């Protein structure tokens, strides 16, 4: 019997993912207190995000990840474009205040995970990004060492993501509404489990999985397990440089854009928009920060994890909408939640 990608788990795994990502909050908070002196600095002089980046000698992406998490924790707020301490932070995190607990947090200042987080924030380069460290997980582009190019590491990281995909794919298939679609292009599809769920839900649908060659070996095996190989094509390439197939009426970017910094996100959305026919749809399946960029906390902490492993972070729905509209696509539906904090945003290429 082929695996059923449409079967829901009996229980919701979201809390397990939240516990797993909880260390990011501890590491970022300790780094802010014990390594960047961030609360003393903002207590003296509130400032904009850009000015804070300069003050801390950090690039925009790490500053964004750090500040979003601290805002989501209720320690910072933004008023008139300037970051300032909340009452909670002023009372407990400003050195020398009556109820300062910074020394207590400093107990973790030299822990390996905090030191690693400080290093990542300062360098703005993902874990493993040197070839001698095996290459970065999940991302490939010209000029970086990528773990997705070697058989063993590509397999390891690709199969790891199945742990989320098999739990969330049934919900994606339910909310995607692809009854009228004929050909799905799943870019950066990994194992392909999301595409397989959509294929099982919609028997007339065909799919092309586009990914790196070593990842596609895993996807091909998986397609056999799910009994959909005869409805799949496997195309290897670089999604930033190689031509994208133009015969798909639906493109899926599932957990792909959050691996990349702003220029790559914009470029990839532009490429998808060009590849789609009029009336075609681009589906972004991802997590979404709120538009104020101050939460929700689980997504702010996941953003720190994405920051550590890749060149990306979590983005807000407003950021995605801006890129989609710049690429000439129209978003007309609310985001539909799927699972484990993910949701589906769909944009259409106007006729
Ligand atoms: C985080 S994984 C997402 C996998 C799957 N879509 C999911 O939701 O679980 C990102 C995928 O993008 C692929 N990828 C990264 N850079 C790529 C590139 N330049 N061209 C094609 N695929 C790429 C990776 O190999 C990986 O399978």
TrEMBL record:
Active site: 258
E.C. number: 2.1.1.210
Keywords for this protein: Methyltransferase, S-adenosyl-L-methionine, Transferase
Start and end residues of each O-methyltransferase C-terminal domain: 169-329
One Pfam match: Methyltransf_2
Entry annotated with the keyword Coiled coil: no
Family annotation (Gene3D superfamilies): Vaccinia Virus protein VP39 (3.40.50.150), Winged helix-like DNA-binding domain superfamily/Winged helix DNA-binding domain (1.10.10.10)
GO biological process, one term: methylation
MF terms in GO: hydroxyneurosporene-O-methyltransferase activity; O-methyltransferase activity
InterPro entries: COMT-like, COMT_C, SAM-dependent_MTases_sf, WH-like_DNA-bd_sf, WH_DNA-bd_sf
Keyword Methyltransferase: yes
Residue runs in coiled coils: none
Listed name of the protein: Demethylspheroidene O-methyltransferase
Organism field: Rosistilla carotiformis
């Amino acid at each position: 019997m082929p695996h059923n990608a449409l079967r829901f788990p009996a229980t919701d795994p979201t809390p397990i993912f939240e516990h797993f990502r909880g260390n990011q909050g501890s590491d970022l908070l300790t780094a802010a207190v014990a390594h960047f002196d961030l609360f003393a600095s903002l207590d003296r002089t509130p400032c904009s995000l850009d000015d804070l980046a300069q003050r801390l000698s950090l690039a925009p992406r790490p500053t964004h990840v750090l500040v979003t998490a601290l805002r989501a924790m209720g320690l910072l707020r933004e008023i008139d474009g300037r970051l300032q301490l909340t009452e909670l932070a002023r009372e407990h995190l400003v050195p020398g205040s009556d109820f300062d607990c910074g020394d207590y947090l400093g107990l973790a200042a030299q822990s390996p995970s905090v030191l690693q987080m400080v290093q990542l924030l300062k360098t703005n380069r993902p874990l493993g990004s040197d070839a001698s460290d095996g290459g970065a997980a999940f991302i490939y582009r010209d000029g970086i060492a990528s773990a997705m190019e070697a058989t063993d590491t590509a397999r390891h990281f690709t199969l790891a993501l199945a742990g989320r995909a098999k739990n969330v794919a049934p919900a994606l298939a339910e909310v995607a509404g692809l009854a009228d679609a004929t050909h799905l292009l799943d870019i950066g599809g990994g194992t392909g489990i999301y595409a397989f769920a959509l294929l099982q839900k919609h028997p007339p649908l065909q799919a092309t999985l586009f990914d790196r060659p070593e990842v596609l070996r895993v996807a091909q095996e998986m397609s056999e397990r799910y009994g959909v190989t005869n409805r799949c094509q496997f195309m290897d390439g670089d999604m930033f440089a190689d031509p994208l197939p133009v015969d798909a009426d639906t493109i899926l970017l599932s957990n792909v854009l959050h691996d990349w910094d702003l220029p790559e996100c914009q470029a990839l959305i532009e490429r998808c928009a060009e590849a789609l026919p009029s009336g075609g749809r681009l589906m972004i399946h991802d997590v979404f920060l709120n538009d104020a960029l101050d939460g929700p906390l689980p997504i702010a902490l996941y953003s720190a994890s994405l920051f550590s492993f890749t060149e990306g972070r979590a983005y807000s729905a407003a950021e995605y909408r801006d890129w989609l509209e710049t690429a000439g696509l129209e978003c007309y539906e609310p985001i539909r939640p799927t699972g484990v904090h993910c949701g589906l945003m769909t944009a259409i290429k106007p006729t």
